[in-house]
Specification:
By secondary structure, the protein is of the alpha/beta class. The protein contains eight helices and seven strands. It has a single domain, classed as NAD(P)-binding Rossmann-like Domain (Rossmann fold, 3-Layer(aba) Sandwich). It is about 45% helix and about 15% strand.
């Protein structure tokens, strides 16, 4: 992943304390970026990411907050600028799942996932865009999911939220292209994280059976796609959705 050079750039990663977000923080820092590690509840895990980056000679800070609240999202992006003087990269990775079948889903399970996965992406994207259009440069990468493309039983709330993330990505890309701000999405499939560990075993096995490559992906494999989209190598890409799913989306 060291092929991309992000020296002197500043990256914000929401949901950066574990899983895909953690891998993104480490990859961006390895490429030379200063990183703001966003987290909601796991300060210890966020601190561990900062320490790992520091051990490798990089620089990172943490920010704790609920990004489904507009004020907290604004504060996250403002902290990056206050500390490092600019903002070059935003990775919108914060999210949760509350899986259950449609007919059993409670209203608060629906709203909680839409707020954590879609509202937070919108609030952070809007706050970042205000900064980046003044710089006339920026890279925004939203973490979607193959669940937005292939229906997963028990994930109607998550699938709807991630489909919204893809639509938001394309709309924002069209609106911000004139200011040289690119907006792309990465859609992971079944990745080895705590979130996928929480998927009921029957559903998880059913999903794995549909992966042509026959295995779960690693967070680092998603981070590689994020790193590419954050780099100059992807300067002519915007409004794209890069699927990292072992082929699971081919049938949908």
């Amino acid at each position: 992943m060291a092929h991309a050079s992000l020296g002197g750039q500043v990256a914000v990663v929401s949901g950066g304390s574990r899983g895909i977000g953690r891998a993104c923080c480490l990859a961006l820092a390895e490429a030379g970026a200063k990183v703001v590690v966003g987290y909601r509840a796991r300060k210890e895990s966020a601190d561990e990411v900062v320490e790992a980056i520091a051990r490798s000679g990089g620089e990172a800070i943490i920010f704790g907050g609920d990004l489904a609240e507009r004020e907290q999202a604004d504060a996250l992006l403002a902290k990056a600028v206050d500390r490092f003087g600019r903002l070059d990269i935003l990775v919108n990775n914060a999210g949760v799942t509350r899986d259950t079948l449609l007919l059993r889903m409670r209203d608060d399970d629906w709203h909680a996932v839409l707020q954590a996965d879609l509202d937070s992406t919108f609030f952070c994207l809007r706050a970042a865009a205000k900064i980046m259009i003044k710089q006339r440069r920026g890279r925004i990468i939203n973490i979607a999911s193959v669940a937005a493309m292939v229906g997963n039983p028990g994930q109607s709330n998550y699938s709807a939220a991630k489909a919204g993330v893809i639509a938001l990505t394309r709309t924002a890309a069209a609106e911000l292209a004139g200011r040289q701000v690119t907006v792309n999405a990465v859609a992971p499939g079944l990745i080895e994280t705590e979130m996928t560990d929480a998927i009921p075993e029957g559903i998880r096995q059913s999903m794995l059976n549909r992966v042509p490559l026959g295995r779960l992906g690693r967070p680092e494999e998603v981070a590689s796609a994020v790193l590419f989209l954050a780099s100059d190598a992807a300067a002519y890409m915007t409004g794209s959705v890069v699927v990292v799913g072992g082929g699971i989306s081919m049938g949908g």
